[in-house]
Amino acid sequence: MNLFKNLFVALIAVVSLTMVACQGGANDAKDKARESLATTPAEGQPAAAGQPGANPEEAVPSGPTTSMAFEETDFDFGTVNEGEHVKHTYKFKNTGNEPLIIASAKGSCGCTVPKWPSDPIAPGQTGVIDVEFDSKGKPGKQTKRVTVTANTVPAQSFLNITGNVNKDPNAPASPTPVPPSK
């Protein structure tokens, strides 16, 4: 029922925007649509099994869409010691004809924190998403994902950061489970 309400509200917004756009020139309508980008629940974007960060209820911008291309989507940081912070910059370009608006970028866990531009990226321009991984308490092989949601088709892009974390030799050992008494 909630999805129906959201779709109904989105439909009303589109119809209203179309009516307003018909009163002005073509450029006025484009500008108005860009200014009024709203977010609606994603439809037809089911979370694939085993894809951390994939969320079917992720908000995606509605309105004019564009496209973006990353120079790379996978980064292997090699081997680091537990407690180190790894930073990597993912560069992208707006390859479409509309301003690129990144609504969100979310790490698959709290140890992976992305920072993305809040201002629209003009067509043909470039931008960066900085990702920081905190290896504290994360020994062993690590694979983390950042889900980037923007006014693109598809609405979500994925960035991956992988590597190995050497266990801190001074870290307390895991407690040995004590069998229950009878």
Key terms:
182 residues, 2 helices, DUF1573, Ig-like_fold, alpha+beta, four-stranded antiparallel beta sheet, Immunoglobulin-like, 18% helix
Report the radius of gyration as a whole number of Å: 21 Å
User: Which residues sit in consecutive blocks of at least 5 with pLDDT less than 50?
Assistant: 17-57
Give the CA-based shape.
Answer: elongated
For this structure, what is the CATH homologous superfamily of the domain at 63-166?
Answer: Immunoglobulins
Keywords: Signal
Signal peptide: 1-21
Biased composition (Pro residues): 172-182
Biased composition (Low complexity): 38-59
List the helices and strands and how they pair.
Layout: H1 2-23, H2 26-35, E1 39-41, E2 59-61, E3 68-70, E4 74-81, E5 85-94, E6 102-107, E7 112-115, E8 126-134, E9 140-150, E10 156-166
Parallel strand pairs: 4-10
Antiparallel strand pairs: 1-2, 3-5, 5-8, 6-9, 7-8, 9-10
Helix pairs in contact: 1-2
Region (Disordered): 32-64, 159-182
Signal peptide: 1-21
InterPro entries: DUF1573, Ig-like_fold
Written overview of the protein:
With 182 residues, the protein is an alpha+beta fold. It has a domain at 63-166: Immunoglobulin-like (Sandwich), CATH 2.60.40. It has two helices and ten strands; from the N terminus they run ααββββββββββ. It has helices at residues 2-23, 26-35; strands spanning 39-41, 59-61, 68-70, 74-81, 85-94, 102-107, 112-115, 126-134, 140-150, 156-166. The strands form three sheets. Strands 3-5-8-7 form a four-stranded antiparallel β-sheet, with no helix packed on it. Strands 4-10-9-6 form a four-stranded mixed β-sheet, with no helix packed on it. A hairpin with a 5-residue loop joins strand 9 (140-150) and strand 10. Helix 1 runs antiparallel to helix 2 (26-35). The longest helix has 22 residues, at 2-23. Residues 17-57 have low confidence and may be disordered.
